[in-house]
Design a protein that fits this description.
Keywords: Cell adhesion, Disulfide bond, Extracellular matrix, Gamma-carboxyglutamic acid, Repeat, Secreted, Signal. The chain is an alpha+beta fold. 25% of the residues lie in helices and 28% in strands. It is elongated and about 110 Å long.
Length: 772
Amino acid sequence: GTGMFAMTFTEYVLQLFVDSSAYDKIVTHSRIRARKEGPNVCALQQVEGTKKKYFSTCRNWYKKSICGKKAEILYECCPGYMKLDGMKGCPAVAPIDNVYNTLGLVKAATTQQYSDISKLRQEIEGTGTFTVFAPSNEAWDELNPVTALEDNVNIELFNALHYHMVNHRLMTKDMKNGMTVTSMYNDQGILINHYPNGVVTVNCARIIHGNQMATNGVVHVIDRVISSVTGTIKDYLESEEQLSSFNNAVFIAGIMDKLGQPGQFTLFAPTNEAFDKLTTFYISALVTYHMLNSVQCAEAIMAGSVYETEEGSTIEIGCDGDSLTVNGIKMVLKKDIVASNGVIHLIDEVLIPDSAKEVRKLVGKSQSIFSDLVSEMGLTSSLTSDTQYTLLAPLNAVFTDEVMADDEYLKLILENHMLKLKISLSTMFNGQLLETLSGKLLRVFIYRTAVCIESACMVRGSKEGMNGALHVMTSLIKPADKTTFELLDADGNFKIFLSLMETAGLGDLLRQNGSYTVFAPVDKAFEALGADDLDLLKSNVNALRNILLYHFSEGIIINGGLEAKVTNLLKSLQGKPLQLKSENNSIRVNSVEIPKSDLMATNGVVHVVKNVLYPTDLPVGHQDLLLVLQKLIKYIEIKFVSGFTYAEIPLTFISRLPETKTVIIKEKQPSIRTVTTVTEGKPSIKQVTRVIKPSGSKVEVDHATKTVTRVIGRQPNKVTRVIGGKLRKNVHLENVFIISLLKEESGKITRIIQGEFPYLQICKDLAMDQHD
C-alpha cells in the first residue's frame, strides 16, 4: 500500500522517535483543539501582557487563564510544520537540515549567531549526533550583558554553548522526570524534569519548542539561558549570607547533611529578614515544612497544585502572573536557583506548619465564631500552649440566635466542643468515648465515608498542632442524657409503640445499655386501627415481636454517616434487612419518609417514622391479622400464605433482670439511712443516695428507675421495692440499712458491719465502686 511510502521522511522519523510522553500528549491535545483551523495547527495560550505561550492543560484551557491571568488563544503551526501561501493550516513539513541550519528554522537566531562567533558552527554542521537546548532570542535578551562572553569567544561563549549540548539525540519522550544528562562541557550534569502537565524543563528552563529534528541531532528551544551547576543545596545555603538564619535552623534541625546528598529536592529558603518577623517556633517541623522531595521549577507551575512536604503536611504551590505563590501568597523573591540535587526558591516569609502552631491558631475563617465565643466566655485559660487538648469547631452557620440567646447554655455548648486530650483523626475508633472539659463523655462513630461525634459529623480539614488537634464539625454536639425509652416517653407521641413494646416483652430493649438504631412510629401511624385491631395485634406476641424488632438495628446509624444517594443496608433485629437512603439531607427507610432523625439517646439513636415498617418478603398466615396489617401498612402489598407462622426470635439481645439479695443491718442511729442497689450481671451505673429520714417517714425504693423517694408521714418505717413495675414485697423496718449487693461486695459488707470504716468513708467507697 501507499501508507508508509507516502509518509514524508520527517513524519517517519517523528513516528520512530516520538512516544506518548506527557509533553507529546499535550501537543496532540493542542492539535485536536485546533483541528478546525486546518492540518497540523496547534492551539496555544499566551498569557496576556507577556510573550509566554503554552500548550495548555484542559484545566487552563477551560478556565481561559494561566497563573490566574487571562490567556489569549493562538493558533500556530505544530512543531515541525510550516505554512504555504494560499493554503489553510500548515500543510508543509519543515525541511530537515543539520543542527546549525535548524537553529535558524526554529527562530533561535541568536544561538545560531553565537555558534558562528564561538567557532561552534563547524562542529554542529558536521558529523555526529547532538541534542541542543537552544535559548530563544528573548532568553538571550533577558540575560545580563553578554559582552564578556562575546569578548572571550574562544572560552566563555564556546563553553556556555557546549553546556547546552548533549552528545546524543534526546527526544522529549526520552526525558524522564528527575534524570540528569551529561553535557558537552566538562561532563557537567543537566537536570531534566518532565511534569504531568506536559512541561519539560532543563535546569528549570522550559522547553517551548521541542523535537525539531535535524540530520545530525535534534533541537529544543528553551526559554532561558542555563548555566552549569556544581554545588548542592547545602553548598548554596552555606555560601549565602542572606540565608544565615535559615542555615542555622537547618543545622539545628539535623537535615543539613541530607541537603548535601544526591536527591530531588525543592527548598523554599526564607531570608534573614523573614526570620526577623518570627517569635517562637519548632525548629525541626519548621525547616522540613520548607522542603519537598521533588523538584518543582517555577516554569512548570501553571496553576495551584498541592505537594507533600518533608514535614508530612502539604503546601500549595501556585502562580500569579510571573510570580510564584506559596499557600496563595506572593512571597518568592528569587526562583529557580538550580543546584546539583534540586532547586531553591528564596522567599520573604517563613512558612509555619500546623505542627508548629498552637491548636487555637489552626481555627479557620469558617469556624471564627466558635473561636471568638471561646475567648468571650473566658474559656481560653484551659487552652494554654503547654496543655494538650482538642477543639471540635462547628461551622459558623450553626450559631443561630437561639443558640446565642442564653450565655450559660452557650458556655456549656462550647465546653462540649473542647476535649481534654489530643485526639487525632487517625487514632479515633468506633465506640470511643471522649471526655470534654465539662466532664461529659462523647461517642465516636466511624462510617464508610464519615467520622461523627454524637450526631455531628466532621468535614474535611482536620489539623494537628503542636499541642493538640482541630476537627471541623457540621453541627453542634449535644451529649445524650436520656435512654431511648425516656426520650420517647417524654415526647408523648409514641404511646402506642411503647405499649406494644411492653406487651411483647421488649420494653427493656429501650432501657438497657447498648447501641441501637430505632425507627419509632408515631401514634398517628396506628390511627387506622380500632381497639379490637390493637387487641388482636397484642394477642399474637410472636407476630408482634417480628413486627417491632424490624424497627431496630444494632449499632448507631445517623444521617451524616450514610453514603449519599446510595442504598445503605442495615440488618434488623428481626433478621430482615432495612434499606436506608440519604438524599438532599433527608433520609428514608424502605421508602418511608423520616421527618425527624438523629434523636440521640444514651443507648442509641431514634429516627421518627410516620408508618409502621414491615419486610416486603415476609408473608402473613392468618386472614384476621392480614386485615389488621393492611389497615396499618399501605405502602407495600403484604403477601398471604395460608398457615404461615412467624419464626420465634430468641431474645438474646435483652439483658435479663438479675437476681438480688437483701441484707438487713441494724443500726443504732436511725437519723441516717443509706439505700444502695447493686445487681448481679452486667455492670451498670447505679445511684448511691443518702436519705435523712425523720421518725415516722416512709422510704420508697423503685429498682426499675433506681430512685429513692422520701415521704414524710406518721406510718411505721417501711421500704417498698418495685421491680419491673410490679409490687414485690413490703418490709417493715426498725432503724435499718437495706443494701442489695453483689456477691463480690460481701467482704466489704462484713467489714462495714464490723465497723472498720467510718460511715462517710463507706458511702464514698461504695459510690466509687458503683461508678466504676
